[in-house]
Amino acid sequence: LTSVVLSILIAVPLAALSARSRGRLADHTVRIVSTLGIGFPPFWLALMLIILFSVRLGIFPVSGYGDTLFDKAAHLILPSLTIALSLSAVLTRSLRAAMIVELQSDLATAARARGMPESIVFWRHVLPNSLVPTINLLAVNIGWLLSGAVIVEYVFSYPGLGSLLVRAVSYRDYPIIQGLSIVFGVLV
């Protein structure tokens, strides 16, 4: 849940910036970053975030779960950010494309003809209409989100169904593997 919220908080501003500055440096930068983000596997991104934020900067803990509520929240940030960065790359590209189509739609043209400022046209007409295909893409990617969480949980030693599945595979505990496969299948 935190990964989905973070990915939306990352994707919407980046896609808006990219769509509103189409063909300029900001658009090219967002497109390059989102293309690179799609290519990075979640486990590699997790390791890079650990190296940067835990080892070099010492801001977040490397792994584990934590004891207090604040400690648990601190341990949740890097795993959530890892999954959110992977998911937001896909969402940014989709939302940018939908926003560009909506900026050229008849609805936006009619709103501009009525004298509405461009910012009102964008935030009131373009953004809500372009969120529909992105929400559909987000729903389709929930299965990918669960599979990415399996590896990310294991990398961060975060106790969850993903790390349980990895341990069950290494111990050849077939009933747990079958049970978790059914749970993941039902969730998808």
Description:
The protein is mainly α and 188 residues long. Helices cover 82% and strands 0% of the residues. The chain has 9 helices and no strands. It has helices at 2-20, 25-39, 42-56, 69-103, 106-113, 118-140, 142-155, 161-171, 174-187. α3 packs across α4 (69-103). The longest helix has 35 residues, at 69-103. It starts with a helix and ends with a helix.
Report the helical percentage: over 70%
Number of strands: 0
Into which percentage range does the β-strand content fall?
under 5%
Taking pLDDT < 50 over at least 5 consecutive residues as the criterion, the unreliable ranges are none
Structural class: mainly alpha
For the record, give the distance between the C-alpha atoms at the N and C termini, rounded to a whole number. Answer: 14 Å
Order of helices and strands: HHHHHHHHH
Please state the CA-atom Rg, rounded to the nearest Å. 20 Å
* Average pLDDT taken over every residue: 85
Report the major sheet.
Answer: none
Q: How many H/I helical runs?
A: 9
Shape: elongated
